[in-house]
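Exercise 7.
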Amino acid sequence: MPQVPTVVKLQKIKRIYYKPDGSILVNALNGVDLAVPKGQSLAVMGSSGSGKSTLMNILGCLDQPTDGSYELDGKNISALDDNSLSSIRGQEIGFVFQSFNLIPQLTIAENVEIPLYYQGIEQKERLKRALEILKKVGLENRIEHKPGELSGGQQQRAAIARALVTNPSILLADEPTGNLDSETGEEVLKLFGELHANGLTTIMVTHDEAIGRRCQRTIRLKDGQLESDIFNG
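Solution. The predicted structure, written as tokens, is:
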């Protein structure tokens, strides 16, 4: 049986935030090791202040570790400059947030096109790819609507489409059902399940134990360290 490639590899990751006088404000991550195989669904859990948001920011190339190494899809990105990190974010990582972060003045199709615009892709191809991905998430009949004309669940589907339009290596989701009622949240989680079943690597920060159990694997952080690492089957 062929070995599944590792898409995320963290080794001895530390993240220390300092005060202006150089003293330590908080030791947010303290030597985290983590390997995520391609196609795995991973839940990141932990109480407030455990380090899970810091870990998510490092995984998403929004922050850099103070020490340690981070390989994404075989590339060591720990010491890249801001421009290189921005390029990696745009091409390799899809983000889904609790608050959707859609631009209200733009149509859903235009919102989904935005990451491709920053990659310099021409408008005709941008629209083609946006329509393809919107069809995948069940919004092909809403492309001309603006975010305010959609339900919360539809807005989150649009946000997922925007995250997927670049064909990223990993999909990072931060409490993606936090602003949704339970029925709508269930629909969004089913979509995540379908994406994972089709081979996408998904990493979800959640406080909800039930959501954590739906993922193949759950890691729990405490005081900036990996407290547990459980495979849910």
